Amino acid sequence: MHSHSGQFCPGHAKDTLEEVIQLAVAAGFKTIGLTEHMPRYAKEDLYPEELKTDPEVSSPSFPLHQAYLVEASRLQAKYASQIHILIAFEGEFIRPSYGPAILSLADPLVYPQVDYFIGSLHHVGGLPIDYDRDTYLRARSSYVASLASADPNPDPARDPEDLFHERYYDEQHDMLLALRPRVVGHFDLIRLLSDDPARDPSLRPGIWSRILRNLRVAVQAGAWLECNTSALRKGLAEPYPAAPVARAYLEMGGRFTFSDDSHGIAQIATNYPRGLDYLESLGVTEVWTLERSPHPGVAAAAADSEAAPVGAKAELKEKSVPLSLGGANRSVDVGVKAGRFDRFIGVGVAATLGGKIGPARSSA
Asked: By residue range, what is the domain housing residue 237?
């Protein structure tokens, strides 16, 4: 439900979109969500590696996004008999002004081929928090300095890290209210480059109250959080979200989808076995995806319709995917625990991916 390609995220990812789909097909994926990053509206909002690419594709403009939708639709039709392709994008809530832009890119009357978007927050105060440690510290210092200028007598006992995380969840709250996304991306991304990524947020009252508030908003809106295994690829001990957050979300009745947040074929399905173990440790028995009808393409527009002359948005049905198959199927060795992984990427995937999903696992 969350993937990228170098073709439409130049400098930030690798490989063509078709190569991503081809590997997903070869690996046995049943469904894949294509979620290229949305256009940015100012050059200062691009990451450094994006600025180094061809200026025509690194400029914050729409042509690349339009080309992505055309190519995704072509590939959806080409591979329709082999894989269920959902067409989406990752919305970047860099500042509140991005809200209307994100919603416009999901307008079913203009973009009926778009099935959903991911609501993500990669910035605080307009500065990136997940690029590298120096950039993270710069964003934190900038925010703390803004507080000091607004309050001549700040509380010296307040931890700058706490203040920064509180602001992250406040901006995430703004995003959730403005966008009501179907999927909330890497809910606690703020911990990636923080002073202590393993710190339990439930022990920090100001942070925890904001997390609970945001989770309630997501659940009430029917949004799914993704169990995003890219956190494991980047060295964290748990996927996004961390266990305290995940448990609170589940207690509220929240539901998970499952993602690798891959940025090229080398990252497809990375750490899926660990991600599944993690979900099972939380008592999760199923994850959720979407099934579109029709597939491929969009629904035919009514003959007298002026509102949707290019077709109507496909109907989307929520689909549960059990984590465990049970019975004899659990003895199938696909290089992961107990054979349940073929629900996601199919028998023989370990050989197909050349071990990229991790070492073989026993059925213990």
From this structure: 3-323
Residue 351 counted as domain residue: no
The answer to whether the beta carbons of residues 38 and 105 sit under 8 Å apart is yes
Nearest of 90, 91, 78, 86 to residue 32 by alpha carbon: 86
Domain count, the chain: 1
The mean of the pLDDT values for the chain is 85
Question: In the predicted model, what is the mean pLDDT of residues 131-155?
Answer: 89
**C-alpha distances out from residue 331 to 245, 248, 339, 355, Å:** 33, 33, 6, 20
The predicted pLDDT at position 355 comes to 38
Cα(13)–Cα(309) distance, integer angstroms: 35
Q: Which of 187, 259, 249 lies closest to 228, judged by CA?
A: 259
Residues pairing with 319 in the sheet:
289
160-179 helix and 98-105 helix, angle to the nearest 10 degrees: 40
Token digits of residue 302? 């009514």
C-alpha distances in Å from residue 155, one per residue of 158, 164, 172, 354: 6, 14, 24, 54
**What confidence category does residue 300 fall into, taking pLDDT thresholds of 50, 70 and 90?**
low
CB 194 within 8 A of CB 165: yes
Confidence of residue 60 (pLDDT cuts 50, 70, 90): low
pTM of this prediction? 0.86
What CATH number should be reported for the domain holding residue 241? 3.20.20.140
pLDDT band at 48 (very low <50, low <70, confident <90, very high): confident
The tokens for 363 are 């059925």
Report d(CA 9, CA 278) in Å as an integer.
Answer: 29
Q: Which residue has the higher pLDDT, 119 or 153?
A: 119
Say how far apart CA 351 and CA 348 lie, in whole Å: 6
Provide the pLDDT for residue 9.
85
Task: State whether the Cα torsion 40-43-47-51 is positive or negative.
Answer: positive
- Look at residue 289 and tell me if it is in a domain: yes
